[in-house]
């Protein structure tokens, strides 16, 4: 294998050298517990405080509105369960969409078993949520709305500002899963008008195992992790100091010169999309053509299985996915693609290529040089194609 091309940046990203450099002292020499009072602990506490400030600055929030978690999934769970339980005296109706990450969908399903009712909003053929459908779904007992900022599979960017405004008018809490958005889209929590926002470090050059939840001041939400007094008593557990420091540095780097970085990535995305559509027949581009994440390319190839496509690409040195990494062990087609209205047989042939900062034009050219032949070979083996 002469070349390796990593095009699964939606699943995870490599830790940036500057991030690792910031993390190392808290794994080796500055290993104190931030909750202790001696000098060795003071540097660890200062690192957590600095990271909280960095995340707040990146989101245009206040430091006391930022709470560190173990991952984006925990942040989603905390936002949804915490808001639901804290406000159930007002009502037990929740609203989300059919295309959310399973961290949201499975949390909603759990709450349904606890006596809450959930409305799952449909999306159009490009994955967009209609503000009108949200208005129609709101009831007197609605207490929380959760809509992702950008879809992790098809890349469609949702009209969060407009949706959050609808929620605010009705005095309903609004949460957005922004795990895929940070580092790809400008995010200003005040401008968006959201009550809560989830993020995860490893999606933008930080380490795995650390995330954060923005909770707007005044938002009523239950404690999710009971234990010590960490995170101002709202999320117990000794802080992952190295991870938190890495998150702070990573979000600072990810949001610097964002426009220039996304323009370059979008140019690579367009080259890849046009190359695929022009060189391979019977391909469907999934997601909105322009309202999409800068580096997202998601296509369905008729007459072949996505898993077979991934294995052939891997043999050619290309790492990609057929959808969310969290569902890679499932034999079922993507719930996101089914929500778009695609039949099972087409949804099974999906491929997600996600471009990151480290990718180059040569990477795109390599994919375009090997993908058409792979598709042709697999279709030649398919009884559906021969028919």
Give a topology summary:
Elements lengths: L4 E2 L10 H7 L1 H4 L10 H21 L6 E4 L2 H15 L6 E5 L4 H12 L3 E5 L9 H7 L4 E5 L13 H10 L3 E5 L11 H4 L3 E5 L10 E5 L14 H4 L7 H15 L2 H22 L3 E3 L10 E6 L4 H10 L2 E2 L15 H5 L4 H4 L2 E5 L6 H21 L1 H4 L1
Parallel strand pairs: 1-11, 3-4, 3-5, 5-6, 6-7
Antiparallel strand pairs: 2-8, 7-8, 9-10, 10-12
Helix pairs in contact: 1-10, 3-10, 4-5, 11-15, 12-15
Features:
387 residues, 16 helices, 12 strands, alpha/beta, 43% helix, three-stranded antiparallel β-sheet
Protein model, in words:
With 387 residues, the protein is of the alpha/beta class. The protein has 16 helices and 12 strands. The strands form 3 sheets. A 7-stranded mixed sheet has the order 2-8-7-6-5-3-4, sandwiched between helices. Strands 9-10-12 form a 3-stranded antiparallel sheet. It has a two-stranded parallel ribbon with strand order 1-11. Strand 6, helix 8 and strand 7 form a beta-alpha-beta unit. The two termini are 34 Å apart.
């Amino acid at each position: 294998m002469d070349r390796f091309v990593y095009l699964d940046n939606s699943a995870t990203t490599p830790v940036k050298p500057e991030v690792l450099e910031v993390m190392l002292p808290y794994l080796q020499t500055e290993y104190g517990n931030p909750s202790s009072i001696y000098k060795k602990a003071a540097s660890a506490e200062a690192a957590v405080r600095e990271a909280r400030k960095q995340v707040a600055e990146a989101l245009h929030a206040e430091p006391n509105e930022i709470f560190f978690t173990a991952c984006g999934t925990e942040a989603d769970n905390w936002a949804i369960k915490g808001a639901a339980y804290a406000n159930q005296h007002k009502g037990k109706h929740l609203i989300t969409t059919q295309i959310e990450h399973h961290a949201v969908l499975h949390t909603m399903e759990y709450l349904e078993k606890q006596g809450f009712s959930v409305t799952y909003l449909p999306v159009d053929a490009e994955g967009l949520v209609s503000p009108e459908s949200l208005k129609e779904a709101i009831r007197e007992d609605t207490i929380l709305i959760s809509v992702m900022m950008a879809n992790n599979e098809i890349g469609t960017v949702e009209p969060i500002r407009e949706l959050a405004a609808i929620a605010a008018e009705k005095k309903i809490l609004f949460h957005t899963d922004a795990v895929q958005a940070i580092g790809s889209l400008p995010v200003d929590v005040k401008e968006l008008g959201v009550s809560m926002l989830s993020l995860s470090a490893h999606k933008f050059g930080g380490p795995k195992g650390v995330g954060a939840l923005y909770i707007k001041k005044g938002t009523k939400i239950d404690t999710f992790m009971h234990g010590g007094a960490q995170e101002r008593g709202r999320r117990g557990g000794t802080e992952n100091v190295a991870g938190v420091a890495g998150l702070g540095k990573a979000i600072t780097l990810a949001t610097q010169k964002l426009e220039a970085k996304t323009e370059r990535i979008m140019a690579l995305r367009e080259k890849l999309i046009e190359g695929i559509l022009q060189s391979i027949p019977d391909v469907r581009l999934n997601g909105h053509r322009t309202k999409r994440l800068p580096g997202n390319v998601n296509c369905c190839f008729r007459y072949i299985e996505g898993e077979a496509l991934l294995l052939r690409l891997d043999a050619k040195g290309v790492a990609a996915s057929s959808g969310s990494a969290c569902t890679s062990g499932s034999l079922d087609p993507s719930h996101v693609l089914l929500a778009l209205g695609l039949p099972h047989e087409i949804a099974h042939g999906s491929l997600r290529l996600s471009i990151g900062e480290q990718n180059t034009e040569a990477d795109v050219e390599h994919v375009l040089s090997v993908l058409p032949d792979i598709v042709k070979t697999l279709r030649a083996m398919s009884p559906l194609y021969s028919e």
